[in-house]
């Protein structure tokens, strides 16, 4: 038996082990047989080990050019560099599903290490749920889209990856995004366990908080890197086009964001229990839906795989998960009654409730706009399209409302906020808005969305700074130096200040989105050697066109001299033609960032006429760098919030939650 055949056998053995564990774990809990639960945990270890070996075997086949495997022949060729050979694991349908499954098995092992001791009542059903999900994916990988399937005729070379995938983004964006999808299975599993055991108090919240932050962070990183990849490769001057696959990747991140907020309300006030359970379940369902869209070919997208027999299986699995989850929620609805009540609209819980309503509204409209073409074709037999304009017009006002809440919500007190507190908390943050708006008007910014976003972003930043200043000043009055006071303040409540950083990051991203969309300048022109083109404040001169040969491709780049506010520079946009993909040219965009103006000069080589003339498409994208800076700050804020607190801080947080539960139960 050849090594690759052993990989297929390992997947079948993993399927059997996962199936045993999926049954044994909940059965052991219901029959009070801890040894059976322990057997299920060991089955999860065996599953992870078997799938890991299968992944290593497939990677060996990719690196050794074993073109007897269909997956290797379709995704690699001999000219590809080693790093792309490794990344080919997630470059095709079968390999990406194997990677999905592999990450799930590793996460299940990590859950077992911690949860069996920390959350013994929830662990068996959570483990059984995770193993049940593994059973489905292992069944698909082993029986339907097996990456170890052989070819009857072995080609001398493979076709290689799609040229659009031969970019640095391929090495990190897909694995992060797929890991984000997968990790939503953990909060889902604990939600199922909490419903099954009727343990819907604070225990399951503690079990999912950091896992939800992990899912949110991985998905957010994947979205950010995907936007960066599209910006650098696709050549249309933007980073988010409301493409169906982009949309479905955004959906679980939105519901995960809502879940992180409503968890705080249940911890403090015993409210929003239904929200938390439904959001944990919905996030995983949307992750499965996203996986279905990418792999079914039902929606046209530059990111999607071709039609596959796995599509109907994913749709069926999604249907089972949705029906079963809905049934569990309805069954346990009496246990999901809120312990507290909403005492005032001027309270933090009211702001979080409104925040969640808006986040779900964005998710719902994005979902509807994405699936509407399918519904229209199924019911009326017509092909309909929903373009970016729909999403921008519908979601734009909602997102402005969310931005306003980022500035208004966090400083509000729990239960109710007094009028005196409102004046003290919002005084100078509100006073900081008119000067900023006036400055924008003075420099010629008159577009109302830009003025609103500028004012609201100022409010968010000022609110964060004001809160930090009050906390630091209080500690400084007690004799603590300012740097030490700031460090202590953040260390004692990392969740709060990590959230503040995330809020500030959203305001920064909003500035980048407005600047790069409302003030973008675009020109297209054909230039002969030595001719110039003026675009905004920049002048470009065409100097030379140079052909060259790379690893497995033929390239052509243009030398363009740039003169503008950032000084002199040279840009080299290029086009490449890869062997086996001659009809599909890929682009490498020339980008020059000028920090004094925060502009991106973005140049696409569209065509050339001999060696003396080229056609280029040029964009000036103001403030687009804020999108990347804000995205990095957003992820850093999530990391701060997830970082374990000191033991005294953890004890204080537990006492605070306990007091909140007592107050909610007493109805005071």
Tell me about this structure.
- With 668 residues, this protein is α+β, with helices and mostly antiparallel strands.
- The protein has helices at 3-30, 34-63, 70-75, 82-87, 93-118, 123-143, 169-183, 185-197, 202-233, 244-269, 273-296, 310-331, 348-380, 388-408, 419-431, 433-442, 448-477, 482-492, 494-518, 625-642, 647-666; strands at 521-528, 532-535, 538-550, 553-563, 569-571, 574-578, 585-588, 590-594, 599-609, 613-622.
- Strands 2, 3, 4, 5, 6 and 7 form a six-stranded antiparallel beta sheet that branches. A four-stranded antiparallel beta sheet has the order 1-10-9-8, covered by helices on one side.
Keywords:
alpha+beta, 4 domains, four-stranded antiparallel beta sheet, 668 residues, 21 helices
How do the strands and helices of this protein lay out in sequence?
Elements lengths: L2 H28 L3 H30 L6 H6 L6 H6 L5 H26 L4 H21 L25 H15 L1 H13 L4 H32 L10 H26 L3 H24 L13 H22 L16 H33 L7 H21 L10 H13 L1 H10 L5 H30 L4 H11 L1 H25 L2 E8 L3 E4 L2 E13 L2 E11 L5 E3 L2 E5 L6 E4 L1 E5 L4 E11 L3 E10 L2 H18 L4 H20 L2
Helix pairs in contact: 1-2, 1-6, 2-5, 2-6, 5-6, 5-7, 6-8, 7-9, 8-9, 8-11, 9-10, 9-20, 10-11, 10-13, 11-12, 13-14, 14-17, 15-17, 16-17, 17-18, 17-19, 18-19, 19-20
């Amino acid at each position: 038996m050849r090594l690759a055949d052993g990989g297929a056998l390992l997947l079948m053995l993993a399927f059997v082990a996962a199936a045993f564990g999926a049954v044994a774990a909940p059965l052991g809990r219901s029959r009070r047989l801890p040894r059976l639960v322990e057997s299920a945990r060991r089955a999860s270890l065996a599953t992870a080990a078997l799938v890991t070996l299968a992944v290593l075997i497939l990677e060996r086949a990719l690196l050794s050019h074993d073109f007897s495997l269909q997956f290797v022949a379709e995704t690699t060729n001999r000219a590809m560099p080693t790093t792309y050979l490794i990344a080919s694991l997630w470059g095709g349908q079968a390999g990406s599903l194997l990677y999905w499954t592999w990450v799930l098995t590793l996460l299940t092992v990590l859950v077992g290490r911690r949860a069996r001791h920390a959350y013994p009542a929830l662990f068996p059903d959570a483990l059984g749920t995770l193993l049940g999900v593994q059973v489905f994916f292992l069944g698909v990988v082993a029986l339907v889209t097996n990456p170890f399937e052989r070819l009857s005729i072995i080609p001398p070379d493979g076709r290689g990856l799609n040229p659009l995938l031969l970019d640095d983004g391929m090495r990190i964006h897909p694995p992060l995004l797929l890991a984000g999808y997968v990790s939503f299975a953990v909060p889902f599993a604990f939600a199922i366990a909490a419903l099954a055991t009727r343990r819907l108090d604070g225990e399951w919240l503690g079990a999912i908080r950091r896992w939800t932050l992990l899912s949110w962070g991985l998905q957010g990183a994947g979205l950010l890197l995907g936007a960066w990849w599209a910006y650098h490769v696709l050549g249309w001057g933007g980073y988010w086009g409301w493409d169906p696959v982009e949309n479905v990747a955004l959906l679980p991140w939105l519901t995960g964001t809502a879940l992180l907020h409503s968890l705080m309300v249940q911890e403090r006030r015993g409210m929003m229990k239904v929200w938390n359970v439904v959001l944990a379940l919905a996030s995983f369902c949307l992750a499965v839906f996203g996986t279905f869209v990418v792999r079914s070919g039902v929606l046209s997208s530059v990111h999607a795989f071709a039609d596959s027999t796995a599509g109907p299986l994913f749709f069926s699995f999604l249907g089972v998960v949705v029906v079963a989850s809905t049934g569990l929620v309805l069954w346990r609805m009496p246990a999901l009654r809120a312990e507290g009540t909403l005492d005032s609209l001027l309270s933090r819980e009211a702001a979080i409730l409104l925040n969640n309503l808006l986040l779900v509204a964005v998710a719902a409209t994005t979902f509807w706009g994405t699936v509407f073409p399918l519904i229209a074709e199924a019911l009326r037999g017509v092909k309909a399209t929903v373009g970016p304009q729909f999403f921008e017009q519908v979601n734009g006002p909602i997102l402005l409302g969310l931005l306003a809440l980022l500035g208004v919500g966090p400083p509000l007190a729990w239960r109710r906020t007094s009028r005196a507190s409102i004046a003290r908390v919002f005084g100078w943050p509100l006073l900081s808005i008119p000067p900023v708006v006036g400055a924008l008007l003075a420099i010629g910014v008159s577009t109302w969305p830009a003025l609103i976003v500028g004012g609201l972003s100022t409010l968010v930043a000022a609110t964060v700074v004001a809160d930090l200043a009050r906390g630091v000043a209080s500690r400084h009055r007690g004799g603590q130096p300012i740097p030490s006071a700031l460090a202590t303040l953040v260390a004692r409540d990392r969740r709060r200040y990590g959230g503040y950083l995330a809020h500030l990051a959203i305001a920064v991203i909003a500035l980048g989105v407005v600047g790069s969309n409302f003030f973008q300048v675009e020109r297209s022109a054909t230039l002969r050697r030595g001719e110039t083109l003026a675009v905004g404040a920049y002048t470009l001169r065409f100097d030379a066109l140079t052909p060259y040969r790379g690893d497995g491709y033929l390239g052509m780049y243009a030398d363009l001299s740039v003169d503008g506010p950032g000084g002199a520079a040279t840009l080299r946009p290029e086009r490449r033609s890869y062997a086996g993909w001659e009809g599909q040219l890929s682009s490498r965009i020339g980008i020059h960032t000028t920090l004094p103006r925060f502009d991106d000069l973005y140049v696409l080589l569209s065509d050339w006429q001999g060696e003396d003339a080229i056609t280029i498409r040029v964009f000036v994208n103001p403030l687009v760098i804020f999108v990347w800076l804000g995205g990095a700050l957003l992820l850093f804020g999530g990391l701060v919030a997830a970082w374990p607190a000191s033991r005294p801080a953890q004890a204080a947080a537990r006492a605070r939650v306990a007091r909140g539960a007592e107050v909610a139960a007493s109805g005071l």
